[in-house]
Amino acid sequence: MSTERSFKEQAMSVLEDVVDPELAVDIVNLVLIYNVELDNQGLCTVTMTLTIAGCPLTEYLNAAIEEELLAMDQVKKVKINLVWEPAWSIDKMSREAKLDLGIH
Question: Domain MIP18 family-like spans what residues (predicted)?
Fold first, then answer.
């Protein structure tokens, strides 16, 4: 069994540094990130959603995601695939995020 973490695990780990400033919780624990993939040319595709359509933080979050992922050696370019299905809800948040926000 390999002890090396997969690219997706590494990417999700660095994306925990991207915090939604309105909620003060990272986008991984908010479960805004649905998938992260890397192709052979170094293109990292992030499939994600937002808490609401028209979120005023879209550009901020995109820039922060790109910054974190481009710091990884194997990532040459980042593409963000914004999706609305499945729709995000409070129920999707991790237990840690719910505790941070006082939701039980």
Answer: 8-80
Which CATH number goes with the domain that contains 83?
Answer: 3.30.300.130
CA distances (Å), 62 to each of 40, 55, 59, 92, 102, in order? 22, 12, 5, 20, 27
Beta strands 43-48 and 33-38: pairing type? antiparallel
The DSSP secondary-structure symbol of 89 reads -
Question: What digits encode the pLDDT tens for the residues 18-41?
Answer: 999 999 999 999 999 999 999 999
Q: Which alpha helices (DSSP H) does the chain contain, by range? A: 7-15, 58-70, 95-100
pTM above 0.70, yes or no: yes
Residue 99 lies in a domain: no
